[in-house]
Amino acid sequence: MPDALIQHPFMSQSGLAASRDEDFVRAMLAFELALAETQEAEGAIPADVSRRMRACLESHDFDPSAIAEGVASGGNAAIPFVKAGRAALPDDLKPYWHLGATSQDVVDSALMILLMPRLERLDALLARCRRAALPLMEAHARTPMVGRTLMQQALPITFGVKVAHWALGLEQARRRLATLAEPGLPVQFGGAVGVHSGWETLGLTVMDGLAERLGLSAPVLPWHTDRQPIHALSTAFDGAAGAAEKLALDVSLMTQTELGEVAEPAGEGMGESSSMPHKRNPVRCAMIRGACRQIHGHTTVILNATAQPLERGLGEWHAEWAPLLDSALLLEGALEQAAVLLEGLEVHGEAMQRNLTVTGGAIMAEPVTRLLTPHLGTEQAKALAAEAAEQARQQRIPYADALEALMASRHGELSGEIGRADLEAATDPALYLGSSQAQVDRARAWLEDR
After folding, report:
1. What digits encode the pLDDT tens for the residues 105-142?
2. Where are the alpha helices (DSSP H) in 277-315?
3. C-alpha dihedral, 301 to 307 to 310 to 314, nearest 10°
4. Are 9 and 289 in contact (CB under 8 A)?
5. Closest CA to 306 of 238, 239, 229
6. If you ran DSSP here, which 8-state letter would residue 20 be given?
7. For residue 264, how many other CB atoms are within 10 A of its CB?
8. Domain that holds residue 349
9. Is the pLDDT reported for residue 341 higher than 90?
10. Which of 34, 142, 176, 373 gives 20 to 30 Å between its CA and that of 65?
């Protein structure tokens, strides 16, 4: 598979560099060495075993390709890894290698070890997005633009409140991930069937000490077929992906040539077409959405593997590994793009103002109807507001002018009750922004209270 051409570009390159086969092998080794140290500390194995084991294996050249070949016969990477480690040890240490553990303990714990730095990076990227969004929403707290529902013009909002919603989504995702990262992801240690067979109550003590040594959390019980930790992690990734994709979707729609309300940050070669020199494609948005769509698919795989049989999954457990790690790397890549996008987003307020007038003012038909209803009744008011908007669009005149002319020709009696100032106020989008400013203020307070 040409990973470097069709998969890796959507991922974080620094994340990829820290998640190679060699890194997974090192994570498995970290588990095994910490296990021996913990057992030695509890007097379960002779003194100095763990030090000698570490001295022998930390410098050992494990061959990831040979371990990979062994997966086909054992079903997971731990089995050939454990064999390779035992073969590299002197005979007197072999009995203490992988003592009391099972392959799932090794693989699950190694994945948690690999993912902890990724969670730290995701937190940093989401915090960077928040820092970029705050001044953007402040600067445009009163910049009116078209609010759109079902892809059609609806009523005015401000660009600031749109940014506030992007920021809230991303920050909620950050806080959700933080609840998993702050205590540490859980270690896995339960032995063959999850009850520390042959170790009695010492098994739980070793599990707790192992977690502390690895910088992971100690679960209440081993979680061999209780996949809630994986479910929580995967759905948290997916929630963050949804927030990033919302940002990218909105920005990409607003960059359309006919709208031109925002543009991605400029850069050498960014957004160029292979055949159309005039184009400036929203490539960052495409990269974000492409990564997030893959995450959604990976999440489905993990959700369908949540219920696992008896004391060890048969295929369900195996199906989790790649989607979980890929999701983390894809999300990291998407958030790298999102941070750059928010930090350099070009905002074209004049285009937003222009688009408010595209319908001849029809976007303001609701407040006009409200103004006219006490005098004409609901149906007549709606009809007059709509007709004036259509005339304004066709004749390319201000909505207030069209209204004033229609009222003079059909309802002259209103001239003393509804003046020009009333019409201009009712047709000014900047005066019909609802709670936009208050929402920006409220969002800012919540975002800053971190």
Report:
1. 999 999 999 999 999 999 999 999 999 999 999 999 99
2. 283-303
3. -10
4. no
5. 229
6. S
7. 24
8. 3-353
9. yes
10. 34
Let me know if residue 444 belongs to a domain: no
Question: And the tokens for 404?
Answer: 């004033």
Would you say 363 and 156 are in contact if contact means Cβ atoms under 8 Å apart? yes
Residue with tokens 């002197």: 90
Same domain, 343 and 383: no
In a domain, 154, yes or no: yes
- pLDDT tier, 361 (very low <50, low <70, confident <90, very high otherwise): confident
- For residues 239 and 377, membership in a common domain is answered with no
- Average pLDDT of the chain to the nearest whole number: 95
- Work out the pLDDT band at 278, boundaries 50, 70, 90: low
Which of 223, 196, 185 shows the shortest CA–CA distance to 306? 223
CA distances, 17 to each of 12, 20, 25, 234 (Å): 9, 6, 14, 21
**In a domain? residue 110:** yes
The answer to the question of residue 449 being in a domain is: no
Counting the structural domains of the chain, the total is: 2
* pLDDT at residue 416, as a whole number: 80
| The total number of residues written for the chain in this structure | 450
Pair 274, 198 in one domain: yes
pLDDT at 98: 98
Instruction: Please tell me what DSSP assigns to residue 144.
Output: E
Q: CA 343 to CA 190: how far, in whole Å?
A: 46
Among residues 20, 197, 273, 442, the one annotated as catalytic is: 273
**What is the tens place of the pLDDT at every residue in 134-168?**
999 999 999 999 999 999 999 999 999 999 999 99
Q: What is the pLDDT of residue 297?
A: 98
User: Is 274 one of the annotated active-site residues of the chain?
Assistant: no
**Among candidates 284, 327, 336, 285, which has minimal Cα distance to 302?**
327
**Which residue type is seen at 313?**
G
Selecting among 293, 312, 354, 393, the annotated active-site residue is 312
- Kindly tell me if the per-residue pLDDT of 279 is higher than 60: no
Residue 259 scores a pLDDT above 90: yes
Q: Are residues 335 and 229 in the same domain?
A: yes
- Residue 171, pLDDT above cutoff 80: yes
Q: Are 135 and 167 in contact (CB under 8 A)?
A: no
Pair 235, 299: CB distance under 8 Å: yes
Distances (CA, A) of 55 to 33, 48, 82, 90: 10, 11, 17, 12
Looking at the chain, the whole-number percentage of residues with pLDDT higher than 90 is 87
Do 366 and 407 lie in one domain? The reply is: yes
Q: What is the DSSP letter of 19?
A: S
